[in-house]
Write a structure and sequence with these properties.
Length: 114
């Protein structure tokens, strides 16, 4: 009974974070800002949701924990690859971006299309 309540609460929290991530992808102006929302909010949301399923089905908990750790490790890596690919391809950040770290990468500057 207690595990079912904890699992349900975790899944509701997960749905909230996944909604925030989807809203960020929809609302933010460029690929770099969208990656921020896609990586942080959805990774946390999926992680919490998978663990919530583990609480709902205790016999699956070890499997859900392995899946959650795999997601926790691979999602930021894939997001980094998308951001780096965008930088190398010459995608410019939104002009209103306050912090622009793409200027620090020499390989991004040499391949940008003018």
């Amino acid at each position: 009974m207690v595990l079912t309540i904890i699992g349900g609460i975790l899944i509701l929290i997960s749905a909230f974070f996944l909604f925030l991530g989807a809203f960020g992808i929809y609302r933010l102006p460029d690929v770099y800002n969208r990656l921020q929302a896609a990586t942080k909010a959805t990774t946390l949301g999926a992680f919490i949701g998978i663990i919530g399923v583990g609480f709902l089905k205790p016999e699956w908990f070890l499997k859900t924990l392995v899946i959650a750790v795999f997601l926790f490790l691979t999602n930021p890596i894939s997001s980094h690859a998308i951001g780096r690919g965008s930088c190398l391809r010459g995608v410019k950040p939104y002009p209103g971006t306050v912090v622009n770290k793409t200027k620090e990468f020499k390989e991004c500057e040499t391949t940008k299309k003018e």
